[in-house]
Amino acid sequence: MSTINICGLTDYENQTIKEHKGECRYCMHYECFVQRGFNGEKIPVLLCTKNGERKRLKEEKTDCKDWFIDTR
Predict the structure, then answer these.
(1) Tell me, what's the pLDDT at 3?
(2) What kind and span of H or E run contains 15?
(3) Fewest CB within a 10 Å sphere: which of 1, 6, 18, 44?
(4) Where along the chain do its domains lie?
């Protein structure tokens, strides 16, 4: 088993990394906003900005192999 030590993160942030690895909502590439449809309904827009591209997601992923958190 490999271990990655990330300096400068709080205990809460380290726990979040362990519990939510691979989930879009906790990835630095995740963007989400809500827009209004023609009938006034709220439509969530989910975007992934990996590789410099903004790709629209049909639903949030929970198994992303390239998931990581930015520690800069």
Answers:
(1) 67
(2) helix 11-20
(3) 1
(4) 25-60
